[in-house]
Design brief:
This is PB1 domain-containing protein. This protein has 92 residues and is α+β, with helices and mostly antiparallel strands. Strands 2-1-5-3-4 form a five-stranded mixed sheet, covered by helices on one side. It is globular. It starts with a strand and ends in an 8-residue tail after the last strand. The C terminus is likely disordered.
């Protein structure tokens, strides 16, 4: 069985730049690495650039996640958000 994920690529000021839907098999739904690869597959602009993934909790807060343990606590339904992290210049 699979679940549908609605993912947002955020742009400036965390405004949605692009929105995609994709399926994730429930047996891998707690794998951060799998989700990470899937996000890069659907948002090809994220290839070879650093980015951070977040989800919006029941209070509307954006919570960062980057491990299997954190991904497992999300529980369906959840919506990931990704935001590119531009490289910082020295001294920033």
């Amino acid at each position: 069985m699979s679940m549908t994920v609605k993912a947002y690529l955020l742009g400036k000021e965390h405004m949605p730049k692009e929105i995609r839907r994709f399926a994730v098999d429930q047996d891998v739904s707690t794998s951060f690495e799998y989700l990470n690869r899937k996000v890069v597959d659907v948002f090809s602009t994220l290839r070879n650039v650093p980015y951070q993934m977040f989800y919006k909790d029941e209070d509307g807060d954006m919570i960062a996640f980057s491990t299997d343990d954190e991904t497992a606590t999300l529980g369906p339904p959840w919506t990931p958000f990704t935001t590119p992290n531009p490289p910082r210049s020295k001294g920033a």
